[in-house]
Amino acid sequence: xxxxxxxxxxxxxxxxxxxxxxxxxxxxxxxxxxxxxxxxxxxxxxxxxxxxxxxxxxxxxxxxxxxxxxxxxxxxxxxxxxxxxxxxxxxxxxxxxxxxxxxxxxxxxxxxxxxxxxxxxxxxxxxxxxxxxxxxxxxxxxxxxxxxxxxxxxxxxxxxxxxxxxxxxxxxxxxxxxxxxxxxxxxxxxxxxxxxxxxxxxxxxxxxxxxxxxxxxxxxxxxxxxxxxxxxxxxxxxxxxxxxxxxxxxxxxxxxxxxxxxxxxxxxxxxxxxxxxxxxxxxxxxxxxxxxxxxxxxxxxxxxxxxxxxxxxxxxxxxxxxxxxxxxxxxxxxxxxxxxxxxxxxxxxxxxxxxxxxxxxxxxxxxxxxxxxxxxxxxxxxxxxxxxxxxxxxxxxxxxxxxxxxxxxxxxxxxxxxxxxxxxxxxxxxxxxxxxxxxxxxxxxxxxxxxxxxxxxxxxxxxxxxxxxxxxxxxxxxxxxxxxxxxxxxxxxxxxxxxxxxxxxxxxxxxxxxxxxxxxxxxxxxxxxxxxxxxxxxxxxxxxxxxxxxxxxxxxxxxxxxxxxxxxxxxxxxxxxxxxxxxxxxxxxxxxxxxxxxxxxxxxxxxxxxxxxxxxxxxxxxxxxxxxxxxxxxxxxxxxxxxxxxxxxxxxxxxxxxxxxxxxxxxxxxxxxxxxxxxxxxxxxxxxxxxxxxxxxxxxxxxxxxxxxxxxxxxxxxxxxxxxxxxxxxxxxxxxxxxxxxxxxxxxxxxxxxxxxxxxxxxxxxxxxxxxxxxxxxxxxxxxxxxxxxxxxxxxxxxxxxxxxxxxxxxxxxxx
Length: 816
Hints:
Blueprint: E1 12-15, H1 19-30, E2 36-39, E3 57-58, H2 65-78, E4 82-83, E5 86-87, E6 89-90, E7 94-98, H3 101-117, E8 122-124, H4 126-132, E9 143-147, E10 151-153, H5 155-168, E11 172-174, E12 177-185, E13 188-196, E14 216-218, E15 221-224, H6 230-236, E16 244-253, E17 272-275, E18 280-285, E19 288-293, H7 309-315, E20 321-323, H8 326-339, E21 348-358, E22 365-368, E23 375-379, H9 386-399, H10 421-433, H11 457-462, E24 466-469, E25 475-479, H12 493-496, H13 501-512, E26 514-518, E27 523-528, H14 532-540, E28 551-557, E29 563-573, E30 576-581, H15 586-590, E31 601-604, E32 609-615, H16 619-626, E33 627-628, E34 641-644, E35 647-653, E36 661-667, H17 671-682, E37 687-690, H18 692-701, E38 739-745, E39 757-760, E40 763-773, E41 780-786, E42 796-801, E43 804-812
Parallel strand pairs: 1-2, 1-15, 2-11, 7-17, 15-23, 26-37
Antiparallel strand pairs: 3-10, 4-5, 6-10, 7-9, 8-9, 12-13, 13-14, 16-19, 16-21, 17-18, 18-19, 20-21, 22-23, 24-25, 26-32, 27-30, 27-31, 28-29, 29-30, 32-36, 33-34, 34-35, 35-36, 38-41, 38-43, 39-40, 39-42, 40-41, 42-43
Helix pairs in contact: 1-5, 1-9, 2-9, 13-18, 16-17
């Protein structure tokens, strides 16, 4: 278990007194931190940021287990609280509507996700929808998804309650204090430059006033929780934060007869309603309905378009509120009147465009800023996950262990070398536009295609490859048309989405002969210098003894004893190593400060390096034909530089696909030459082009889980079924922790999708992490995290897939 690593008097300064900043101050002081200061450019506690106008919706069900867990923690923290007798959270429940069969199928998917993450839910009939919200005309409703423990949060009250408790524990809050710059010393933050902002008439600040003449506040740790002002503060830090404030249209109706008698103090008794088919949501607000929509043109907001503190004081209009653009809301008004006929006699009032932030993947930006010790981010966090995020940040800052899998939350998941403001706006705009769309786990982005391509792209395009796009913007071949086989008519629309029979055809052919895989988007780093070995050993937490030109797989241990990174290390010289990773975050593990980091230089060679995988039983014959001077042993740790058609290539054993072979790393300028050389010579060896999906199918069929997909920082090697392939001490299975198993669907006509629950005796005992068709057998295989008592090989289970249950059997388990 992680323990406190900070001195209790460490000076921590939080920028932003919204739902995250106030909650973080509360949690830090509960950790025993005695010097916590919060500043906000606006008045406390209605600061004028996104928290001040948040509608309060808190739906827990998402496609991500960690995001759902953060939402659950938020609601649990705010349960049963009041501020001076006024409620903070009401668990009125949530109701999602379907008005056609496609959306109803999606609601079954949502129900299955809720089961996987332990959220109470049920599918309800149209009549039950009308019972839950009597003003609803359910004649066009096909069904609904009811989540009784979801709720509405009064954001400003939540802020003030948590701030008051933080203050009672020693924290200090300053309103009307704007951060204008950061100061650093020797790569570590030393404090922030500040200025006082004018008071806002009619909105008195409840915090302390900044002492007159103060222009600098010293701090050992600074946490940026500034909401929509985050991108501007990022610029002061020299960072592009991939988050974009967006305008969002909302309004209220005048009084509805069916809601008569509900006072403003009570405010709501009925569930929140989401009508995702039109991008809309509704909730009771006393005798009226409040509603908003995402189904309008995307309206990104530049920092210059957000009102300054002086403009806020002059106009009294909150900076996070812009005038309503009625044409963007007009169609939704007609839909509201159709679903709630009483509204036909109402008017739309109190409309505005509220501003809140979006990221390319919809997740927050958390963690310590790389290369700037002591600066942390708590950005782009919605009210739903606010207190949960704050608790994670407090644990992370104080103990070093966030306590949850931060793979999808850490700011470092985005490659800064590929980030510009245009990229942020494009991808965040797509996320806004699709926030209520039916979302499949295999859905590909439609923005910035061909943004980053490997040297092989033109050849792949000419061969009719079906492309996808990774989060880093890399254009990736999913499969090729050259292996086309007959489609399966038995698979439903969800399981056939993003799937092709070509996938198994490619994988099967590669397993029989030889396959060529584009690995050009690899993350490749070099550590060089007199202290390279010692620095690397300290990063890995274990000594790795490697002769020159040999490779090994290693794991970086997380603070919780889990797996922070899965790396391949090649000793390229006496004083140098190549390190091959799987995520942009890996470079920051390698650049971590250690006692010997000053004697080792870490270089990112990713753009300068490209790679091709040559896999399968005939890979050695093909490689031998083209190489002068011999090839490395087919099985082993050799990773020499070989002469491949004249190109110096580092041949590293390929272990992820499980069929043998090598990944060959070369300078990017040689990539196209190598592709043509291998494809040309491969014709006589039965070479097949292998897309990412076939490579994924091979790894699952050969029982190889993937880091960041199947396991991560909260899972030990033993729990992930990695056996003795670990170099760190956190390899034991912990009592009660789920185990990563593989299961096989019994019927070849059945397939499942990620996130679906695994059931034993009708009870949820786990969930699916990755899926592929077995290229040898035709049935579908899936990795799944399962409770230990259901994880033994041979155990029969079921998968809840949409509205069906599909039989399966555990066929690979750490338990044997």
